Amino acid sequence: MTVEDSRKIFTPEQYPPWVVFSNQQKLNWLNSHLEKIWPFVDEAASELVKSSVEPILEQYRPMILASLKFSKFTLGTVAPQFTGISILEGGSEGITMELEMNWDGNPSIILDIMTYVGVGLPVQVKNIGFTGIFRLIFRPLVDEFPCFGAVCYSLRKKKKLDFTLKVVGGDMTAIPGISDAIEGTIRDAIEDSITWPVRKIIPILPGDYSDLELKPTGVLEVKLVQAKELTNKDIIGKSDPFAELYVRPVRDRMKKSKTINNELNPIWNEHFEFVVEDPLTQHLVIKIYDDEGLQAAELIGCAHVRLNELEPGKVKDVWLKLVKDLEIQRDQKNRGQVHLELLYCPYGTTNGFSNPFADNVQLTSLEKLLKSGAEPAQNGGEINRRKDVIVRGVLSVTVISAEDLAPTDLMGKADPYVVVTMKKTETKNKTRVVPESLNPVWNQTFDFVVEDGLHDMLILEVWDHDTFGKDYMGRCILTLTRVLMEGEYKDTFELDGAKSGKLNLHLKWAPQPLYRDS
């Protein structure tokens, strides 16, 4: 049989009868046959799952436990039910299939737990309820039966995973906190062992299938700039927000920002890096919480960005609306917005910037985009920086004009002026007052010496001048990323915290790059 002949097996005219059935008929066929062969599948799959998950359990083992392993693992007598099927890809390289599955099984799973005080606890995992989508990849197509060399399987999406823990012949509450710790460990192990983009490879025919293995493809740079109009979760005072960010929700890859106390419009300006394995399907998730001290943090809202929406090598500035649940699309409540700058840098790509530093200097991907043609580190982990680049220079800010400002006095006018501040140094300048105008023109330029442009911010606040005080009219907050990239630009910015109003600005950057040992 030739390769061409094997491909014809997957053409409609060559399909066996069950393949051209409707989806429901295909599912009935699959479920019927799975029930018949389930005793054999149980034996093989139980050993496969045990060998895959047990090492990860040990990796995430809570510190209060000396050991954590399976003493018994079988999937039971109840076969899962397939409820959906789809073919995502076909062609000469391989076939990708996704199967939605429900399983309310009767497995026999017992964890053998040993504490540091010598107490052994056999913990039974029971009442398992699971709904999810498994991805199967048949690749490569070959000219030998069964016409593919290997099968990759992965949990593409976990919709529901419920289970309970019970100490065999004992009480789970005998050791405080043990139940939550074990449950978290099990969920982390599942996430890190078989959840996409992690995949397990089963060779069917002899061959080298290393190209199917999970490999990092690039680095995602994230600047968490600010949030605004967050929901207040506190009865007294305001929320104390912090952010949690991740591409893969496993413990050692999740990032956490600092907490901003008593603030519903927090400014973080923090930078994070994430390793990306599959930019076509992965996404960045950000969750904003209210810090409750010793109690569990309360979720304010969450958002996500699909990485396939990012243009490699180009910074994307986004405001994301926060929702209660990423799976529920009909959330109309205003929970606030979060401001991010995103940059995806695939491995193996270069840019047109020359590098003024030695080749062994480790830079972030954003620093490389600004200053280097070197590639990001490809070790799949955090980038170890020996030196930090200081993007130093002079920032010229021209406050051109404002439009459609909200009136502040009884005559429907205002006397506006702008205070321009560099956040890190708190250096300030202010424009002249333009009397009785809601569309003032200033055309005033201010120069700031900036010592660290990658991590500084520009804050512009509009005020109404009054003989006996001043009234706040709104503000805009800008990172320096765009002016560092473009060198100079003009743009119009909406005022936050105001009913209406825009600022017209002209920014220009004159660089004086330095570096220092970290």
Helix content: 10-25%
Enumerate how many helices there are, as a single number: 5
Mean pLDDT: 82
Beta-strand content estimate: 35-45%
Q: Unreliable runs, pLDDT <50, ≥5 residues?
A: 1-16, 351-363, 372-388
Most strands sheet? 7 strands, antiparallel
Give the topology string: H per helix, E per strand. Answer: HHEEEEEEHEEEEEEEEEHEEEEEEEHEEE
Structural class: mainly beta
Number of DSSP-assigned strands: 25
CA distance, first residue to last residue: 62 Å
Q: What's the shape?
A: elongated
Oligomerization state of this entry?
Answer: single chain
Radius of gyration: 29 Å
Structure description:
This protein has five helices and 25 strands. The longest helix is centred in the first third of the chain and has 37 residues. By secondary structure, it is mainly β. The N terminus is likely disordered. The protein is 14% helix and 43% strand. The strands form six sheets. Strands 1, 2, 3, 4, 5, 6 and 7 form a seven-stranded antiparallel sheet that branches. The chain has a four-stranded antiparallel sheet with strand order 11-8-15-14, with no helix packed on it. A hairpin with a 4-residue loop joins β18 and β19. The protein is elongated and about 85 Å long.
State the gist of this model.
By secondary structure, this protein is mainly beta.
Output the keywords.
518 residues; mainly beta; 7-stranded antiparallel sheet; 5 helices; 25 strands; 14% helix; elongated; transmembrane helix
